[in-house]
Amino acid sequence: MAQHDLDPAGTAMAVLVQPLIKARASGGGLSETAEGHMLLSATWGLGSAIAQGEVVPDRIVLTRHGFVRSNEAGRKHHREACGHGAGNGFGAGGTMTQAVPDELVSAPCLEAGQATALGRLMRKAEDVLGMAVEIEWALDDTGFKLLQARPLHVEPAHVPMKSGSSIRG
Q: Nearest Cα to 41, choosing from 156, 138, 158?
């Protein structure tokens, strides 16, 4: 820093160290959509398969009160799995791509009760931040882990008008 004439106080940043969750399922969520619902995405294993566009995740729509409106299973042919400790084929940690068993490829990752519980967790994050949120979550053997919550800015749905039509008052 001295070599580049940089002041350490002007370049300070926070560092967060999180353990890698051995997730059975994971994904993201929006606490508010333009249609006034909540939306969850889910896949088997770690959420990186969603982020990289490698799978079509489940799409779960909840009412604002947390009731499941729909649970559309995606196509999840593989999952990113993690391992902890030596002797597991992962080294000291890390991830590995695994095939998903045929019976789970098109099966929903979350049951209705789990989706409802995740909706409640998302609403709690909303209460803490005081606004709509976007979350990332993971589900391991001990329950849901909220990995991240950040403000979500929702734009109203845009409905294009037909060509040649106009609105007159």
A: 138
Residue 24 and residue 116 in contact, taking contact as beta carbons nearer than 8 Å? no
Q: What is the distance between the alpha carbons of residues 31 and 66, in angstroms, rounded to a whole number?
A: 10
- 29: CB partners within 8 A, 6+ apart: 38, 39, 40, 41, 118, 119, 122, 134, 135, 136, 137
CA angle 23, 119, 134 (to 5 degrees): 75
Within 10 Å of residue 140's Cβ, how many Cβ atoms?
A: 14
Element (H, E) at 104: helix 102-105
Q: How far apart are the first and last CA of the chain?
A: 64
Write out pLDDT tens, residues 104-148: 999 999 999 999 999 999 999 999 999 999 999 999 999 999 999
Q: Residue 122 in 3-state DSSP?
A: helix
- Report residue 138: phi and psi, to 5°: -140, 150
